[in-house]
Write the structure tokens for this entry.
Amino acid sequence: MTPVVELRAARKRFGQVEALKGVDLTIAPGELVALLGPNGAGKTTSISLMLGLRRPTGGEARLFGLDPVDRRARSRCGVMLQESGTTGVLTVREIVNLFRAYYPSSPPAERAIALAGLDAKANARIATLSGGERQRLYFALAVCGDPDALFLDEPTVGMDVVGRRAVLASIRALSATGKTIVLTTHYLEEADQLASRIVVIDRGVVIADASPREIKARIPSKRITFSVTAAVGEAAFQGLPVQSLEVHDHRVGLLSSEPEGVLKALFERGVTIRDLEVTGADLEEAFLSLTSRR
Amino acid sequence: MTRPAAAPLRQMLLAQTRSELRMRWRVPAFSVTNLALPIVFFTFFGLPVAHVVRRDGVSVGAYLLASFGAYAVGNVMVYGFGIGVANERGMKVDRLMRASPLPPLVFMLAKVVTALMFAFLALVLLIGFGIVVGGIHQTPAVWAMVITRLLAGSLPFIGLGFAIGYWSGPHAAPAVANLIYLPLSFASGLFMPLDQLPGFVRTLAPFLPSYHYAQLAWSALGAGRESLGESLLWLACYTALFLTLAVRAYRREERAKFA
């Protein structure tokens, strides 16, 4: 079967900056792929190349086996982009109907409006929507033509908890019906909850492409901090699944993907711990540890 | 599952035009200025002298109705495209549109069709006002010719509007459009007949696009100063000039945003 997305040794240079440094990526029909990476990693540039919004400076990009700007390829895609807008004087239903006309066979507008959780706002003018509602409107525009593939760039940014939950549920439901979905996020948890495959991009290269389980094992997801009564050396952490260890006097900070294991081992080694805190690791920090390790 | 590979262009154009009409109608800055302003101007400049008869036998009322008709259509085009395009660029509508299956040409064509419909409405309202309130008389055939010629000859102003829309930002566009279009209309004799304007304006006028554009309407009344061919040639040159400027700015932006 023709892959939905193919990037072959794709490079993109903006002036002096090389945003993508040779990305190879193939996405098959029906996959739900999350592109994960810190801000500025090249996620948006990757999506732009896939959709033909930007042309690669090296390598190749194909969409459904066609040039991404081909109307036949575009007609099978729904997209939600960062930094794109629309005039505010139309109502939600009117603009959904407008976008439905761009696609060969669109289901009724109500379906897309419901998928985005905007039923109560169907007759409201776009200008009156909140930031989160507007973001959900873009989701409705992406799905209204019943496309085979969805490209969602940071889909949940700016959404409140309820709106976010509605959209994530719709993404899952669409994926279950066989749609191909490519989304970008800088939340490891979001990628983990949704995707069957996570592609980690950092500084313009793919540094990992695996299942969420494998990715989580490789990226330290938790930050552990605590105080110790007696000074410890780095030797106390020998052989533990620990990244980016910092010891300042009696204060210890570290990143790990297995906080329970680390703590258990420390207890067994007789380290006395106080003021323990385990928090979700900041992804940028986690990436830094990953790349500095290599 | 078999379904067509893409939506029919006619379906897209229809939906796009319907939305453009709604958008234009709902923004008073467009709808009111487009439709009411020419009537207001005509009330001040045209009505008081409507029944004076010119040396060529045409009433000043009819002559100025043609003048303000030319002003009205140019107004719809220059402001509609100038401010409209600049605003949409400011709101980054282009990025969303670019990623959709809608071809850019259909997007632009819908704008042109919408503008022509608004221009038609503006002309009908203005001329209707002149006939009913001003008691200005011409045969329906003459009015039909004035309207047809003004709509058909509006291309240079579409070009000028696009050029302003792509060269200036959303905040500057209204000022730029005003600074270009109002003096242009005035100096072409659209607000007052040329023979009432200072000498240097009379010398300048025959080089301006609005002057030759208005000739299309004046000559339909029998008050023209040049042949139809001459007017069309001037308008074609200005169309080429403005469209070149617009396309150049459009390409510049394409390179920056979508290269």
Summary: Chain B touches chain A through 31 residues (CB under 8 Å). Chain B has a mean pLDDT of 91.
